[in-house]
Write a structure and sequence with these properties.
heterodimer; A: alpha/beta; Rossmann fold; 6-stranded mixed beta sheet; 4-stranded antiparallel beta sheet; 10 strands; B: 2 domains; 73% helix; globular; ECF_CbiQ (chain B); cell membrane (chain B)
């Protein structure tokens, strides 16, 4: 695949209970872009992400990942292309040891023996978790769990990385580490987060969702300067763009 | 809820023991599982009044604890934890079965007391064997071994998930119980009814989590079958281990060395 694009056109999703989570969402993310999807609770971020690897099917609208439109036939290929890191690493790490967990995807792709070992170790080294290889997931700290969760996806060498609230619940040091790690990646990256400082660090482009619609889509800095827009969407400027509480009150 | 947390931590220690590197740890789990099975069958198949014939079987847990360098005191505490169950099972035997079976010098021992002692000894033997198996092999490896020995894959997967999420579920349950406790201000709160809704919530949470896990599995190309890596080989050491112990157990089952020794000693003196 030459272009790792993600194109969403007039996406609408209604849950079985009648809740209209997405009304009309359209955007196009290009190869190598790093994009944040932000919005208030219930704006439709998680629903949108679940569409990107075909876990939820659109009520109407189209999704295209790379060269393929998303449908039943292309699902296996698309799931390989889109690596999804879930919000709660306890959901992502379900195997008895870290090795088994990182090997789960590659095994399903048909790797075995030395190739498998190499692939697992490489993915763990990438996230600085080589030493955890034989540990059980429930013996890991929050930061370690998160890094291993990223490794479980990296081992499948995806072209597109999707991360749901990656810095949620991490201590400042682990958060920094994770951000530095994510910065190194050259994949097409899509994040959702309430950690707007992370968004500022990692994403050149931001899409703001409001009530299931795209309210704004543009360069991150521009969006974070628009106070009215942020307030309307129940957001606020990242702390690093706000004035210093000691030496000034610029807001 | 501190007790649940403590119990969990204690349980995780068993798990860490399984990461040891002794010769016993390195054996193919299948050999270890099979030996324990033969051991269990031998111990359980004794008659209800047998006590002396069971005693030599303690050589198995004792030898394994020595070989694998396991903390005996810790394992003994774990075994002791399960003993009350055996006591409950056997406690009425002395009252119900008062036929005299045996004279220890001038003391007459009834069948009830004998069967009670037999139940206790068997519990000690079987529980310690199971715990040692867990501490030298680890739960996931046991599941894999059982699967390779012919247990349906579905059960193996179920057991693995049960083990993996036991910790998560216990933590979630602990948190919910703590929240309830803190808001009932030292009284009984809403009583039993609040527990029923608490358990219902826990069930629903488990359900949702299962869905999310399934999602995570699908996202990584799961197609319904667990691919499992193999890194054990059933070699000569395993064969020796299996045959050696099995032969000993069968020998101990068919003869009664304690009685033989006894009659030998009394024969010498008479």
């Amino acid at each position: 695949m030459s272009h790792h694009i993600v194109a969403v056109k007039n996406l609408r999703h209604v849950y079985p209970d009648g809740t209209e989570a997405l009304r009309d969402v359209s955007f196009r993310i290009h190869h190598g872009e790093s994009v944040a999807i932000i919005g208030a609770n219930g704006a439709g971020k998680s629903t949108l992400l679940l569409h990107l690897n075909g876990y939820l099917a659109p009520t109407s609208g189209e999704i295209q990942i790379g060269d393929f439109p998303l449908n039943k036939g292309t699902l296996p290929q698309i799931r390989r292309t889109v690596g999804m890191v879930f919000q709660d690493p306890d959901d992502q790490l379900f195997m008895p040891t870290v090795y088994d967990d990182v090997a789960f995807g590659p095994l399903n792709l048909g790797l075995s023996g030395g190739d498998l070992d190499r692939c697992v170790i490489e993915a763990l080294e990438r996230v600085g978790a080589r030493h955890l290889v034989e540990k059980a997931p429930y013996h890991l700290s929050g930061g370690e769990k998160r890094r291993v969760a990223v490794a479980t996806v990296l081992s499948m060498s995806p072209d597109i990385l999707v991360l749901d609230e990656p810095t949620n619940g991490l201590d400042p040091y682990s958060r920094r580490q994770l951000i530095a790690l994510l910065k190194e990646f050259r994949h097409t990256r899509i994040f959702t987060s309430h950690d707007l400082d992370m968004v500022l660090d990692l994403c050149e482009r931001t899409i703001v969702l409001k009530d299931g619609e795209v309210r704004a889509d543009g360069p991150t800095l521009e969006i974070f300067q628009d106070r009215e827009l942020l307030e309307e969407c129940r957001l606020e400027k990242p702390l690093s763009l706000q004035g210093c509480p000691v030496c000034g009150t610029r807001r | 809820m501190a007790s649940i947390d403590a119990a969990l931590l204690d349980f995780q220690r068993l798990d860490r023991l399984a990461a040891g590197t002794s010769a016993l740890h390195r054996l193919d789990p299948r050999a270890k599982v099979l030996v324990v099975l033969v051991f269990l069958v031998s111990v359980i198949s004794f008659g209800r009044y047998q006590v002396s014939a069971l005693v030599p079987f303690f050589v198995f847990p004792a030898a394994l604890i020595g070989l694998a360098d396991l903390p005996a005191g810790y394992l003994a505490r774990k075994v002791a934890l399960l003993c009350p169950f055996a006591l409950v099972v056997g406690v009425f035997n002395p009252l119900l079965d008062t036929d005299i079976q045996l004279y220890l010098g001038p003391v007459a021992i009834s069948g009830g007391w004998l069967s009670f002692a037999s139940i206790l000894v068997r519990t000690l033997l079987t529980v310690s064997a199971a715990l040692i198996l867990l501490a030298t092999t680890g739960f996931p490896a046991i599941c894999r071994a059982l699967e390779q020995l012919g247990m349906p894959k579905v059960f193996a997967v179920q057991l693995l998930f049960l083990y993996r999420y036991l910790f998560v579920l216990a933590e979630e349950g602990g948190r919910a119980a703590r929240a309830r406790e803190l808001r009932s201000f030292g009284t009984k709160g809403q009583g039993v009814s609040s527990y029923s809704s608490l358990i219902a919530t826990l069930l629903l949470k488990t359900w949702l989590r299962a869905e999310r896990i399934h999602m995570a599995m699908l996202a990584r190309g799961f197609t319904g079958a667990f691919q499992i890596r193999q890194n054990y080989r059933f070699g000569r050491a395993e064969l020796l281990y299996l045959c050696g112990w099995s032969a000993l157990f069968i020998l101990l089952r068919l003869t009664n060395p304690a009685e033989l020794l006894g009659s030998l000693v009394t024969g010498l003196f008479s």
